Automatic annotation (TrEMBL):
<comment type="subunit">
    <text>Homodimer or homotetramer.</text>
</comment>
<feature type="binding site">
    <location>
        <position position="349"/>
    </location>
    <ligand>
        <name>S-methyl-5'-thioadenosine</name>
    </ligand>
</feature>
<dbReference type="InterPro" id="IPR001045">
    <property type="entry name" value="Spermi_synthase"/>
</dbReference>
<feature type="transmembrane region" description="Helical">
    <location>
        <begin position="133"/>
        <end position="153"/>
    </location>
</feature>
<feature type="domain" description="PABS">
    <location>
        <begin position="247"/>
        <end position="487"/>
    </location>
</feature>
<keyword id="KW-1003">Cell membrane</keyword>
<keyword id="KW-0620">Polyamine biosynthesis</keyword>
<feature type="active site" description="Proton acceptor">
    <location>
        <position position="402"/>
    </location>
</feature>
<keyword id="KW-0472">Membrane</keyword>
<feature type="transmembrane region" description="Helical">
    <location>
        <begin position="232"/>
        <end position="250"/>
    </location>
</feature>
<keyword id="KW-0812">Transmembrane</keyword>
<keyword id="KW-0808">Transferase</keyword>
<feature type="region of interest" description="Disordered">
    <location>
        <begin position="1"/>
        <end position="20"/>
    </location>
</feature>
<protein>
    <recommendedName>
        <fullName>Polyamine aminopropyltransferase</fullName>
        <ecNumber>2.5.1.16</ecNumber>
    </recommendedName>
</protein>
<feature type="transmembrane region" description="Helical">
    <location>
        <begin position="63"/>
        <end position="84"/>
    </location>
</feature>
<keyword id="KW-1133">Transmembrane helix</keyword>
<comment type="pathway">
    <text>Amine and polyamine biosynthesis; spermidine biosynthesis; spermidine from putrescine: step 1/1.</text>
</comment>
Amino acid sequence: MIEPHAPAPPGAPPSRGSPARLPVRPDTGRFLVLTCVFVCAACGLVYELELVALASYLMGDSVTQASVVLSVMVFAMGLGSLAAKRLRRFAAAGFGALEIGLALIGGSSAMALYAVFAWTGDWGGLWADGPRVLLVAFSLAIGLLIGAEVPLLMELIQRVRRQDAGGAVADLFAADYVGALVGGLAFPFLLLPFFGQLTSSLLTGAVNVIAGGALVLGLFRRDVSRRARWLLLIAGLTVLGILGSAAVLVDDFERSARQALYGADVRVAVRTGVQEVVLTGGTGGRPLDLYLDGRLRVAGQDERLYHQALVQPAMTGRHTRVLVLGGGDGLAAREVLTHPGVHRVDVVERDPGLVRLARTDPALSRLNAHVYDDPRVRVAVADAFHWLREAPAASYDVVIADLPDPGITDSTKLYSQEFYGLARRALAPGGRLVVHGGPVATRARAFWTVETTVRAAGLRTVPYRVTGDAGRAVHAPRDWGFVLAAAAARPALRLDSHGGAASGALTEEGLAADARAVERTRVAGLRASTLVHPRY
């Protein structure tokens, strides 16, 4: 039974617990409040996922970034709920102000993170801790505002129709959780594929401010003073204008940010559905650089040194059948085909868009010597781990793992003991495996964990590295570490005189010297990385 209350004076906020003066029936009003809860919950989860996705793309290590965002945001939601207790008397106006602030901060968060990353370089110097500071700041602010929504919405739904607290909580959280489900599914399957990270966050902010404004200025307008209504309307329209202007300019912003990040000669920038692929240079005598999700994978003049060091030592023996895991750019396959006696090269690449570029882009296909036109080269679009599980035993003389660095969480399973066990099973008697283990100088622990993990799979190893031109590109690593391995006996680190390295920068003396140098960086006491206990 609703207890009678004295009507509030015109323009004064209603007292706590008094029924709202609604323009609709209470049942309709309750439905509209729960609909707003649903929409706001969906928007809130999209903001969380946007921060996780962009932080993982810019900084790597998606597990760490997800942990930072979610833990800070949940903590901040608790603080926001406590802080909102003081706003319950002004629940309608307070909720409207919260949604305007949340739309502005959440909607612009992805663009702000990307802008700081693009225009401050590689997070060095003054900005050494910039990414995590900015990530934590956005997570904290968004979490505070999301947390403050719940007490105010609880107050509003009780003003619509008084009911027992347990029933009101159940209704509120049911709408909240269903909205979170819809937002969580919409982000990877609708927003990212059709709008991209920046536009999807701006669009989410617009939906957020419209939903909050419609609820407050429509359903609860009689509970808000005339002055507050005008302030909320002006602020909401201003935020919509900011978000709309940013959406109109987002393409120009992305182009400018890419030029700041990759240089002025960006030729190709596409999102393939698996990753973002950027090609710079390759014309007018400028070296071609290939970036995958912002990380330099092919570095101009250093490219040939890297791929020769990866491929050539593994080809000193029988090499009739060769498997390349990753390497969709075709450059590792190019080095394989410099050896006579190669009958078949299987390239297993998860990104068909990268393979398509390697076939069709004039500069990249010229660099890989048009390997995909060679009938000996066959491409399988698949995850390397799952593909190896189905590969016949003892089917390859050489297995080349040209994969991203092990520190990138998405590729950690491809540097596990289980993965190397599958690779060992695919090796023919006397076969050799070579693994790119990342930079030694800056990530020695990760590199030696790779070597330890290969040995744990029952293979005998020879670690080595080569050093590139660190001064040519600030994004390039100073060196690359590799692990050459075989099952029966420790392989010899040498070069085949018939291979492409014969006329390249690699020499057996240089490799031997680098192998001795890399041994001096060995980190003792490391344990193998497994699927259930990744150690990178």
